[in-house]
């Protein structure tokens, strides 16, 4: 179970390839930080599936028959992806990834010595302005 958490965390964190403007701290300012709010945003409630969408219609110039072929291929791929994800979903039915990550993150952040950094707020959904409002 712990391995699954680490893999999921690695996948989630690897998606953050660029630093957003509201997530940048100048090197000179870092030693001056004495307290902070910590927010963990976990939107996904369950494991989803994605498929490579067929593009037979686009490759052949369109039309009804290629569109029907695309539809059939996509339906088959979706069915296979859902069947593959089903057992994993069933095993994780009562597992709250967000709460587990929140606890682990809080425990690790407590070791930094920065005041209140271990008080991790877990957010399940956010508005478009949430992050900029929170940072402000």
Write a concise synopsis of the structure shown:
This protein is mainly alpha-helical and 136 residues long.
Write up what this structure looks like.
The structure is a single chain. With 136 residues, this protein is mainly alpha-helical. Helix content is 48%, strand content 6%. The chain is built from five helices and two strands, in the order H-E-H-H-H-E-H. A two-stranded parallel sheet has the order 1-2. The longest helix is centred in the middle third of the chain and has 28 residues, at 64-91. It is elongated and about 65 Å long. The model has no long low-confidence stretch (mean pLDDT 81).
Distance between the termini: 37 Å
- Spatial shape: elongated
Structural class: mainly alpha
* Strand coverage percent: 5-15%
Order of SSEs: HEHHHEH
Q: Uncertain segments of ≥5 residues (pLDDT<50)?
A: none
The number of helical elements comes to: 5
Helix amount: 40-55%
Q: Give the rounded overall mean pLDDT.
A: 81
Main β sheet profile:
2 strands, parallel
- Major sheet: order of its strands? 1-2
């Amino acid at each position: 179970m712990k391995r699954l958490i680490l893999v999921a965390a690695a996948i989630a964190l690897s998606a953050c390839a660029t630093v957003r403007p509201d997530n940048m701290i100048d090197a000179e300012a870092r030693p001056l930080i004495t307290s902070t709010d910590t927010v963990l945003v976990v939107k996904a409630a369950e494991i989803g599936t994605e498929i490579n969408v067929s593009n037979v219609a686009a490759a052949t110039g369109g039309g009804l028959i290629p569109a029907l072929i695309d539809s059939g291929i996509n339906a088959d791929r979706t069915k296979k992806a859902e069947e593959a994800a089903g057992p994993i979903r069933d095993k994780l039915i009562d597992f709250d990834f967000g709460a587990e990550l929140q606890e682990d993150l809080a425990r690790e952040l407590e070791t930094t010595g920065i005041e209140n950094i271990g008080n991790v707020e877990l957010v399940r959904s956010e508005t478009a302005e949430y992050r900029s409002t929170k940072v402000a």
